[in-house]
Amino acid sequence: MTGPWAAATTLTVVTPAAGLFVSFEGGDGAGKSTQARLLAERLRALGREVVLTREPGGTALGQTLRDAVLHGEHVDARTEALLYATDRAHHVASLVRPALERGAVVVTDRYLDSSVAYQGTGRDLGADEVENLSLWATRGLLPALTVLLDLDPDVGRARLTSAPDRLESEGDDFHRRTRLAFLDRATADPDRWLVLDATRQAEELAAVIGERVEALLAAGASADVDGAPAGDDLATAAGATARDAVADESAVSS
Ligand SMILES: Nc1ncnc2c1ncn2[C@@H]1O[C@H](COP(=O)(O)OP(=O)(O)O)[C@@H](O)[C@H]1O
Ligand SMILES: Cc1cn([C@H]2C[C@H](O)[C@@H](COP(=O)(O)OP(=O)(O)O)O2)c(=O)[nH]c1=O
Asked: Strand locations in the chain, DSSP E?
């Protein structure tokens, strides 16, 4: 990459040694908040400190930014990307990183990959540029595990009960492209991602996720500063298959 963000690619991606950072990603209504909550409950029952949080809006300043970006006046795509990045920078500096440093498990409902999918691909700002913006904002903090709850956007929309926000109001094409962007990122980095079919029962999904996280904790994955935890062949295959299936669906429906 060239240009002003080129320097960001030299950042070292570091998970602080003590804790474990887990993010949930996927479209609206995919079940992220449900699974994040169930995971937190499971780990707390095991005696772990868990910080359950979300983006945008995991801090007081973040709540103000959330209201602005989701319900405020119209903003252009770059302003939108910067608002999410600002929320993320403050979230990581003030809440996520301190919690990881004291050994907590941090479970976040959305993180950097949402920006790459929604602003980078959905808004056409460029995946690399948007990723590097967030890596700069967070000093290179990536989750040890990102759970992608993959769902047809129409099914997700039908699950929602509240009025759509500014992003949810975008059209079918926008949401189809963000879904594919998540799947592409998961396929490109299978060690970090666990791709799950979000039409499965919530309890069933929670069991798979819980087992994976407990395995990471048992293996001390969070202390692996230089490399990602061991891969999951089944999940990798599921991710690739899901992406192919979605591509086929798009081909059929377009
Ligand atoms: N696996 C699932 N199957 C069917 N419905 C689900 C499932 N998980 C969550 N839901 C329901 O779908 C709605 C959206 O779930 P939520 O966890 O808020 O999604 P998100 O945080 O991804 O927007 C809620 O009404 C929730 O009860
Ligand atoms: C974190 C993040 C969220 N978003 C969008 C996705 C969602 O439509 C919206 C609000 O996220 P969220 O509260 O997760 O909505 P929901 O629970 O309905 O899934 O913000 C971005 O566009 N970029 C980002 O970086």
From this structure: 20-26, 50-54, 105-109, 145-150, 193-197
